[in-house]
Amino acid sequence: MPLPLIHLCVMALSGAGFAIAYTIYSHKRVKKPLVCPMRTSCSFVTQSDHSRFLGFPVENLGMLYYGATLLLHVLAIWFPRAFFGVGEWALFGLSVGAFLFSVYLMSVQAFILKQWCTWCIGSALLSTGIFVFGIVAIF
Predict the structure, then answer these.
(1) For 3-138, CATH number?
(2) Where does the chain have alpha helices with state H?
(3) pLDDT of 96-122, one tens digit each?
(4) For the chain, which residues make up each domain, given as ranges?
């Protein structure tokens, strides 16, 4: 798969991930219940003690990750030489970290909270997609 196409796919996934994180953020900010399409309690998950990591709300970390990923892949298209080699590995490292964090958050839902959040699962799937595209780009 050509590298510019990979960047475009990652940009689309990042935009969707940012939208999900922003949706969770905006609902929490105004204390509006988050509707969960799977008939589970998204608000239970997003309002739990586990919705913060090192003092930061997880949705804010998500917006930061997806926003930075989107911006970096836009720059990678505009300035491909700057991202060749070390830059590609840095983008891949970022996606590995986000993927592992998603695995951690899914484990918290499954084993600690025993509740699922559709929005959170969607974000984890998008993060996994970005990780897979990173593997394709590197190897």
Answers:
(1) 1.20.1440.130
(2) 3-29, 42-46, 58-78, 80-83, 86-107, 118-138
(3) 999 999 999 999 999 999 999 999 999
(4) 3-138
